[in-house]
Amino acid sequence: MGSGNSTRPKSGDRSDFNVKPETLINGGSSISTIDSSHRRKMTDEEKNTNIREADYEDGSLGIMSKARMEEIVENLGPDELFCDPDFPADSQALFYSDDKHSTGKSIVWKRPKDLMEEWQTPQLMIDGMTRDDIKQGILGDCWFLSSCAAVSQRPKYMKKIMQRDQPLVGDEYKGMVNFKFWRFGQWSDVYIDDRLPTKDGKLIYASCTDPQEFWVSLIEKAYAKLHGSYEAIDGGQTMDALVDLTGGLAERYEIETKDPNLYRQILRASKSEAFITCSRKGDWKLSNKADPNGLVSGHAYTITGIEKIQHKMGEDKLVRIRNPWADGTEWKGSWSDNDINWTWVDEETKERLGLKSKDDGEFWMSYKDFCRHFSEVTICLMGPDFDGDGVSDQAGHFEVIRGEWILGCSAGGSRNDLQKFATNPQYLLTLTEPDDFNEETDDPDSEGKCSIVISLMQEHRQSRRNVKVKRLQIGFMLYQTEDTEHSLPARYFKYHPDCGKSGVYINFREVSGRFELNPGHYVIIPSSFKPDDQSAFMLRVFGEKKFGLKGPLRPAPEPE
After folding, report:
1. Among 145, 237, 355, 388, which one is most buried in terms of CB atoms within 10 A?
2. Catalytic residue positions, numbered
3. pTM of the shown model
4. Does residue 55 lie within any of the structural domains?
């Protein structure tokens, strides 16, 4: 329940994809595309918006230079506090939809100090940041808050996002707070004022469970500023939020595939300090309230623990999950807080698991029930996972390269038109040294191979408040080559199969793939599905051993 408001937050991450991808045929090659917004009915939290689409402009929305910020603060009067000129406290900061601006008139913007009693002192954080601090309000941004809860378990990463010594009252207080988010390959400062939307004297959006603590409300505001408004983060992907908070590599796993290795991946990822979230399947129409079993349809949660325990009746695999509503809306089935199953477990094990009966949104459930009621898991690692075991591996080498799909030049689209496909930017990947091989632990088939993880990210940053940046369906393909100087021509693709690809084209911000390749030369071809779609993009390539990456390659000269 949001602070001071009886309205349930809308819920949901983009999950439960059930519609088969469209398949197009070209010369015997099957090219597939998936638009995540059309695979099923959307939850209220992720519904398609009606704001206009525009191509990427300068991507500077939400970003103020440090020099400009310091100039504004230095020119404040003795009793004057910072008021953000780029994100003013009005209805436009709340909504991008013109028809909703009138509803913002009942909202009163207040600073933390004005929400306190005289004897209370507002603070950015009290005793650090924990997942227990986070409480969702009426905004459907559980995808972002569940990601914050995951990252808050690793203090060293939260220190990168915000400094704790930012006063909200006192002599050094200026009414300004600073956060950092990872945006398209670099960490960017986001400055905001500390005015927050309230109704009847209570915060309407996310808050801390301690009323004197405000980091949750303020980080939500900073993230809303990057997107143009609070309404703009009313629905989204946890994998995007996790990357924005860490700069890591996020991968999504569909539970419906019944992968027998998924439990092992989650377990190993948890032990290796990865960030893990999950989303629940179910009837999207009920996303504003819990089902009888205590779970919310289409909702994003944080996985905060995973254990295999021994007890009097045998053995069970358990998963600990947190609802960002942070209240009594919890799982009511087997292994819930007060379930009889816990009488089988010894006190030492219960203490080790941190078992508590509390209406805080966190609960245990069996892994079997988890697979029955949830649809996907997102794991964010701080490095590449070469073998797909859910653990970040040591990358001996890492390269980043940026490029563009330009109309009439390099926006060639998919293989459905080979002539245009060949005009896409092409990058040469040169692998010279195979990975170290361990006869006792490694797969014999991997001997002599090079492990590579490739990630393609399209630039997806807001430029204007009421204009949605177009999100393309993207993917990449990998081909072996002998020519290290020139791009592959269209005729090459008629007779040579790819040796790897990211999968179906999909309108995710980032797609990735892991590959085991023989030493040699390869061409990476990133593209959108449709030709003539323009965007900037970024390739990140990770390898266990040193490799080469260059480009874009130029076409071979025409024979005279």
Report:
1. 145
2. 142, 299, 323
3. 0.85
4. yes
